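Kindly review this protein for my students:
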Amino acid sequence: MEYKYNGNTLMHGIGFNFSRFESILKHGILSYSESISENVKLCRNFYGHNKDDEISFVRGLYIDTKNDVNITYWHMLSGYYKYILNGISFVVEDVPFNDSDNVNKLDEVIVKDKVGVDKIRGIQIPSKYQDVLLSDVSYLFESKSCINIKNICDDYIEFMKGYGHSLDMVSYKKLISLLSSTSKALSNCTLGEKKMLVENFNAILKTLDKYIAINMGMCFKRYFGFDVTVYQMLVYLVNKNKVDIPIYIIPYNKKNKGIKNDRWKIKNNSS
C-alpha cells in the first residue's frame, strides 16, 4: 500500500537507524535543542545548515512524477530522492512549516522544534528495501564527522546490547581509532596526500558500516531465531511500542520522481 501525498504532506527520512526509529515512536520527531530539553538522546549524521531548533522535511508539493528527469542531477538536489527513497521515513500531516528559499534541497521545508507522534500518519519504506536483511543495509549514511560517526555507532551498540547482543569491542575501537587518525591526517595534509587519505577514510568507514550491519543481523537473528528483514523489523518495533501507525511501501518505480522544475513559481501560485 502506498501513501497518497497532498501538497502539504511532509516526510522525514532517517536512513536505517532503528534506534532512532524507536525513539521517534516514543517521543516524536525532535530537533536537537528539543531532544536536550526532553532529555532524549539524538545522534546527528552531520551538522547541516539547520539551526538547533529546526528539522528538515520533504514537502509533497515539490515531488513530481516525471519520466524524463536526470536521475543523477535530481539525486543531488532532491531530499526525496536522496533520503526518502533510500531508507525509512515518517509521513506527517497538519504541521506548520517554513517554506523559505534558504534550504539545501529544492523540495525541503523546515519545521520548528518538534513533531508529536499524533501527527505521524505513516511509516514508509521503498519496495527495494522491504525484504532486504538487516545485515545487508547501510547504517552510516554519508556522515564524515568522526565524532558523529562514533556517537551513531555507540548508539547502535547500546541498542543491540538491549537485545542481549555482545560485540567484539576490540575490533570496533580499532576501527574508530583508525578513522580518527585518518581524519586528523586529512586536516593537515598536502594536496598531493589528500586523495589517498580520502580513499583510506572511506575504506575504513565502509568497513565500520559493515561491522555494524553484520552485528545487527547477528543480534536479531539470535533474538528471533531467523534472519530478519527491514520490513519485519519495522513491524516488530511498531507492535512493541503499541503505536497505531501504518507502514506504507513506496513502489521503486518512483525512482523516476523528481522535483517540479520551478519550485518558487509553484510556491507563489499555491499561496
Observations:
- The beta strands are 10-15, 29-30, 54-59, 63-65, 88-92, 108-112, 114-115, 120-126, 247-250, 257-259.
- Residues 186 and 267 are 42 Å apart (CA to CA).
- The longest strand covers residues 120-126.
- The first helix runs from residue 18 to 27.
